[in-house]
Here is the input.
Amino acid sequence: MKLSARDSATFLKSPDAQTKAVLLYGPDAGLVRERSRAIAATILGKDSDPVNRVELSADQVKADPACLRDELCAMSLMGGRRLVVMRDVADKLAATIENALDGLNTTTYLIIEAEELSASSPLRQMFERAQDLAALACYRDEGRSLEDVVRTALAHHGLRATSDAMQYLVAHLGNDRGITLSEMEKIALYMGEQKEVTLDTAMRLIGHNAAESMEDICHAVACGNVKEAQALLNRLLYEGTQPVAIIRSLLRHFQRLDIAAAHIASGQTVEGALSALRPPVFFKYVPPTKRALSLFNARTLAIALNLLLKTERDLKSGILSPSLVAGQALSQITRIAAI
Here is the structure.
């Protein structure tokens, strides 16, 4: 069955009420892990025996396809339920997983963790169509949902943020739920007895993370700053950021520019077009956003968006070097802006 974001809270409380396995997939690896831990805690309970939890990598199952079925059918030696977690799963293992689950009658629960899967993915389709399986997408927090995550995490530590601090946090977090929650922990440790997070505090503590570098590279590319864009790309790749994540961030940025350009074409002022965007442009990035809107028009924005979509497809194919493909795309778009 296909679960919506609205269904997720109810499902996480009792995942085994209707299903024997769940597929957690999407670009937010931190959210995938968080939901996997929540389901594991529900299935196994707080005082479960560690031996009742088994983790299998995709490579292990690929090398020995029968091991998955064996683990799902195994009985607990010490009593209690068992859980099998598979990580880094891709479509190539869809048939193996389907065979392992076929006719399965056991109390062992299966969690599959995967990256983003297309609507045509065999693995995703299998979990969405079967009534005793579930597929739950884990997309990045943004806009109102990200604000709720940040506010809830701060409240857990007895903290609140000023409106400008919240705007800054929302603008610089969200690529990964795990990173977002880790940053809230860092703020909580820093705050001590203070209860209100100010903009100064937020900028001091969240100033240099991957999310900001991602934001910066988007503005560098859109403003035609070739050297800055290349330097930021090298930094992100060195820090382990996946090239496809950079391209998707650029896609979202240029889609927002395209929306703003459409507002301007309909007669709105630049300021009005920017204020209509959701989430709003953080004040630090208003000047480069205006600059980008002066460099791109509807035709060149369409060219940039088509190029980014093609680049994303090329990266998924895995035929060429990901860093080379991403670098070429960034170079082509910055040249468009610099014309």
The first helix runs from residue 5 to 13. The two ends are 50 Å apart (CA to CA). The mean pLDDT is 86.
